[in-house]
Amino acid sequence: MRRTRNKYYKLLDTIGSTLQKARENAVKAINTELIIANWEIGRHIVEFEQHGNERAEYGSELLATLSTDLKMRFGKGFSRSNLQLMRLFYIKYPKFQTMSGKFQKSQTLSGKSLSWSHYAELLTVSDDLARSFYEQQSIKENWSFREMKRQIDSSLFHRLALSKNKKGILALSEKGQNSRRSNDVIKDPYVFEFLNISNGSIIKEHGLEKKLIDNLQQFLLELGKGFSFIARQYKITVDNEHMFIDLVFYHRILKCFVLIDLKTSKVKHGDIGQMNLYLNYFKEEESSESDNEPIGIIIAADKHEFLVRYATGGLSNKIFISKYQLYLPDKKILEAKVKEIVDTNRSTL
User: Fold this and answer.
1) 5 vs 207, residue with greater confidence
2) Which CATH number goes with the domain that contains 274?
3) Are 185 and 292 in contact (CB under 8 A)?
4) Whether this model's pTM surpasses 0.90
5) Residue 236: in which H helix or E strand, if any?
6) Which of 95, 156, 301, 303 has CB atoms 3.0–4.6 Å from 151's, for a disulfide?
7) Which domain holds residue 248?
8) pLDDT value of position 55
9) Per the domain annotation, does 215 fall within a domain?
10) Do the beta carbons of residue 80 and residue 71 sit within 8 Å?
11) What is the DSSP letter of 249?
12) Do the Cβ atoms of 154 and 329 come closer than 8 Å?
């Protein structure tokens, strides 16, 4: 009787898995067809305006008339703003390749990973380099629409680009972020706007740590791909003295522990020495033979570049010091800085 019951439950699970897979495939198929349809609609609009020498801008008579007639025939979804998005979709992605293989590859759209909502948001990014990065990174890291929107709003591309040269910026745009070197997983600054702490508020390190853990999903998104949470207030004992590391993660791509210390004031040389001690301890006591050497990140409210240079000079351990901010960065300033880097000696690229 028990064997029969077990077989029945196994049958039930198998049917459930089959249905779930079928539903997921159906959603993917619908998404792919929706993307193709919107691209085709955009193409028809662009070809019409090219032949008729008419600009199909948001307030144009063409889009207004089309919007009214399409809504009468097919219902919702054809507002002027949506039609303008479809038009822009074709202009920004004149050729693409989906799972159906119907189009030649130029700029690749992934019906497999990204939805129309993703592309509608990507089209709001005017910078071609930034848009390409967010598209590639969304596919690589399987970002949901909300996750991608948060990264766009926090100017992730420009924050990463400022630490690179011209060729590095172009590579970042074409291939997304490389997470296989320790230098490439560090951000400066980190943006914690999701904590909803006003910029003038006074917060202690324990409070900042608690808020980050309470918002762990958002924090992991800000840290980037590959981080797995291990523990908070990780206790180590040296010479009968107990010490506590604020946050410990494991990076599954770099194959190493990542130790994070939070400072709500300017970082001091003693903080760097303390992190060096933590890293030496982890190398000796916690890391296995298959692990690479651990990485230390001190995330502080402020830092002095010369102090950081002198305090970390000569250390064998990998220690990074980054600032954090509680508000979204000024996009225009970041965009201007990145543009300055890319435009300098453009002919040498």
Assistant:
1) 207
2) 3.40.1350.10
3) no
4) no
5) strand 227-238
6) 156
7) 190-328
8) 59
9) yes
10) no
11) E
12) yes
* pLDDT, tens only, 22-57: 877 777 777 888 898 999 999 888 888 877 555 555
Residues 208 and 221: beta-carbon distance below 8 Å? no
Report which of 233, 228, 237, 236 is spatially closest to residue 246, judged by C-alpha positions: 233
Distance CA 292, CA 256 (A): 5
141, part of any domain: no
- What pLDDT shows up at residue 158? 92
Dihedral over alpha carbons 299, 301, 304, 309 (to 10 degrees): 0
Any idea what DSSP says for residue 67? H
d(CA 161, CA 159): 6
Can you say whether the dihedral through the CA atoms of 316, 245, 323, 291 is positive or negative? Answer: positive
pLDDT in tens, 297-342: 999 999 998 888 888 888 889 999 999 999 988 888 888 888 888 8
Average model confidence (pLDDT) across the chain = 85
**pLDDT tens figures, 232-282:** 999 999 989 999 999 999 999 999 999 999 999 999 999 999 999 999 999
Residue 7 burial class via C-beta count within 10 angstroms: exposed 0-12, middle 13-18, buried 19 and up: exposed
Dist. CA 272–CA 93, nearest whole Å: 47
Residue 286's pLDDT band (cuts 50, 70, 90):
very high
Do residue 94 and residue 211 come from a single domain? no
DSSP string, 287-298: --TTSPPPEEEE
Q: Is residue 167 part of a domain?
A: no
Q: Which amino acid is at 287?
A: S
CA 43/CA 71 separation, integer angstroms: 19
From edge to edge, which strands make up the β-sheet containing 241-251? 190-191, 318-325, 295-302, 256-266, 241-251, 227-238
Q: Give the residue from 71, 99, 127 where a domain finishes.
A: 99
Containing 325, the helix (H) or strand (E) segment is strand 318-325
Q: Kindly state whether residues 95 and 194 are assigned to the same domain.
A: no
Whether 95 and 195 share a structural domain: no
Distance CA 54, CA 60 (A): 9
Hey, what are 71's tokens? 């809504």
Split into its structural domains, the chain has a count of 2
- Contact of 121 with 148, CB cutoff 8 Å: yes
Is residue 197 domain-shared with residue 323, that is, in the same domain? yes
Q: Do residues 328 and 193 touch, judged by C-beta distance below 8 A?
A: yes
